[in-house]
Amino acid sequence: MTTIPPFPFPPTYNFPPFFTPQPNTTTRQSQLEKWSSLIQSWCRHHRQYRLSLIEAVETPLFHNTALRKRLDLRDAREVIEWMTKSEEEGGGGRRAEWISDSGSASSSIGLNGAGQGPKTVAWIWWRRPEEWADILVEWVESTGQRGSVLTVYELIQGEGAMSQEFHGMDTDVMLRSLNVLVKRGRAQIFGGEGQEGVKFF
Question: Mind listing the GO biological process terms from this record (predicted)?
Fold first, then answer.
């Protein structure tokens, strides 16, 4: 088992105002961009695809113990909300997406977001499904597997993909990425849940 090296925090992480929502619109925009970049880097470093805010607010990602500064759940949610919007909407380029219905009966009662569910768990797209799809196609081409059938399990856990960034990927993210290829006419998925196979064209 390889140990993950410590995460290299950016200099802004040690700047106390980074943890306080800035009132100036331009400064706030810049602050949100920096938070988005930090969250993506953190998730990529830890090979994390979903982020539970309730758990994350207790981790170094949102809690700088040296500064005694942190983002609370509401502020963290605001950052993720900004990340879910496109640049045209003044957001962070759809680098996050809320996962509705996290299976639990929401422990965030009383927090805003009325009528939209709890908004406590999100996909963090340090690579969007479209970007993963491009990487998968590249790998299929370079390994001469066009026309062959692979199981989704092989793609995620197989020895042939061990050196690839998608090795060990969350199954849901893999299926989302493969569905992009299906829409592009580059792949076909068949088989039942948990037994999916995929053919690349």
Answer: macroautophagy; protein transport to vacuole involved in ubiquitin-dependent protein catabolic process via the multivesicular body sorting pathway
What number of other Cβ atoms are within 10 A of residue 117's Cβ?
15
Give the DSSP H or E segment for 172.
Answer: helix 171-183
Distance, C-alpha 67 to centroid of its chain? 27
C-alpha to C-alpha distance for 134 and 156, rounded to whole angstroms: 16
Reported confidence tier of residue 104, pLDDT bands at 50, 70, 90: very low
Farthest CA pair distance, the chain: 55
Beta-strand runs (E) in 56-179 = 63-64, 69-70, 96-98, 121-124, 149-151
Mean pLDDT within 66-84:
96
Helix 129-142 crosses helix 171-183 at what angle (to 10 degrees)? 80
Sign of the Cα torsion 157, 162, 167, 168 reads positive
